[in-house]
Design brief:
Blueprint lengths: L3 H23 L4 H20 L5 H12 L27 H15 L1
Helix pairs in contact: 1-2, 1-3, 2-3
Length: 110
Amino acid sequence: MNHPSHLAQKWNEAQRRAEAYLRALRGGFGPGERQLVVSAIASARGQLQLNYEEHPVTLVMEALFGFLPAAAAGMPAMTPPIQRATMLPEPMEFPVHDWLRGFFRRVGGK
């Protein structure tokens, strides 16, 4: 059996993941989303009594998918839609390479 503090951490993780999912899916997190998370957690806690080996994150997300309207394909969306964005390359720093280059430049110059 799980230690109570580990179980509390798992429930906190489940709540964070459900909130993050709704935030990404709906573009924000308000009272309606908060109520969905509370309902999903309550339902998951009831399901845990029937299936005590299941992870709380799994139970909460399954309950949340049951509360959300079904996707166009008839299955609940497991992830929010992917949005593409252009990314600019960041300058890379290689301090060791820069130091070696300078060292060999000084040694080779003498």
